[in-house]
Write a structure and sequence with these properties.
Helix content is 72%, strand content 0%. The chain is an all-alpha fold. The chain has a single domain (25-99), classed as Cytochrome Bc1 Complex, Chain D, domain 2 (Orthogonal Bundle), CATH 1.10.760. Helix 2 crosses helix 5 and helix 4 packs across helix 5 (84-99). It is elongated and about 60 Å long. The protein starts with a helix and ends with a helix. The model has no long low-confidence stretch (mean pLDDT 84). The structure holds heme C. Residues 37-38, 41-42, 45, 53-54, 59-61, 67, 70-71, 74-75, 78, 80, 90, 94 line the site of heme C.
């Protein structure tokens, strides 16, 4: 009986972590990935240091879910082959620095 409740507990814990996984990423790594894979194109299109695309008045992203979807979309478009962790890291980096969704 003890074993059953322990594994149930661990399952619940893992489920909770993965459901909120994007909160556990590493924004420093997100910054690096962003510099390597994302920023040059944004600078080319929007000028400045590339941040304007995230802070312009008519920016498109309005929710953290939208941000996640956009990062996944850009990743597929440019075939950068990011893994789930790198996507999470990017979302956290962009959210902490620009979007500031709760
Ligand atoms: C080949 C060029 C290019 C690359 C590479 C690129 N993007 Fe973009 N990105 C764009 C363009 C153009 C837009 C604006 C689209 C629009 O306004 O409809 C955009 C928009 C976005 C937005 C939405 C900005 C808003 O309006 O709020 C996000 C977030 C974003 N990109 C993230 C990324 C991330 C993360 C990467 C790297 C994985 C990346 N992009 C790589 C061209 C690029």
């Amino acid at each position: 009986m003890r074993m059953v409740s322990a594994s149930t507990f661990i399952f619940a814990l893992l489920f909770t972590i993965s459901a909120h996984g994007f909160l556990l990423g590493d924004p420093d790594n997100g910054k690096l990935v962003h510099q390597e894979k994302c920023n040059a194109c944004h600078i080319g299109k929007f000028g400045g240091d590339g941040a304007k695309i995230y802070s312009r008045d008519d920016r498109r992203i309005q929710t953290v879910e939208g941000l996640m979807a956009q990062v996944e979309f850009c990743d597929r478009q440019i075939k950068s082959g990011l893994n789930g962790d790198e996507i999470n890291d990017l979302v956290i980096y962009l959210n902490e620095n620009y979007y500031k969704f709760e």
